[in-house]
Design goal:
122 residues; alpha+beta; four-stranded mixed beta sheet; binds FE2/S2 (inorganic) cluster
Length: 122
């Protein structure tokens, strides 16, 4: 069983689009499904893809120490196991918890495409 860190953007545009409800749903579902020990919940952002929000980033928790500046809280890092979900709703968040977190099955159809290509995308 993998462990995860899940961040919901707390930037103003994502909040205006419902990010607080998405975060509340994540908190409730993780508790209801007994997944709190396997998934830490954070508020991150702004990630810079405001128009794609509410934005959520899920990363595998590999025991990596958090940088004091926590760049992962406001940008995609391109780490293995990092998944960016865009245009999130409470309903989509329930799926992310039930499938990605509970079953280690990322939901490809909900993946977001950031405007700025990752450095190794050419
Ligand atoms: S406010 Fe969420 S990405 Fe900018």
């Amino acid at each position: 069983m993998k462990r995860y860190r899940l961040s919901v953007c707390k930037g103003s545009t994502c909040k205006a689009g419902g990010a607080d409800d998405v975060y509340a749903t994540a908190r409730t579902e993780l508790g209801a499904q007994g997944l709190v020990p396997r998934c830490e919940l954070y508020r991150g952002g702004c990630y810079g893809f405001c128009h794609m929000g509410p934005n959520v980033v899920v990363r595998e928790d590999t025991g990596r120490r958090r940088d004091p500046l926590s760049p992962e809280d406001y940008q995609l890092m391109g780490w293995d196991g990092e998944v960016y979900y865009s245009e999130m709703t409470p309903e989509k968040m329930r799926r992310v918890v039930s499938e990605h977190i509970a079953k280690d099955a990322p939901i490809v159809e909900l993946f977001g495409q950031p405007d700025t290509p990752a450095p190794d995308d050419g």
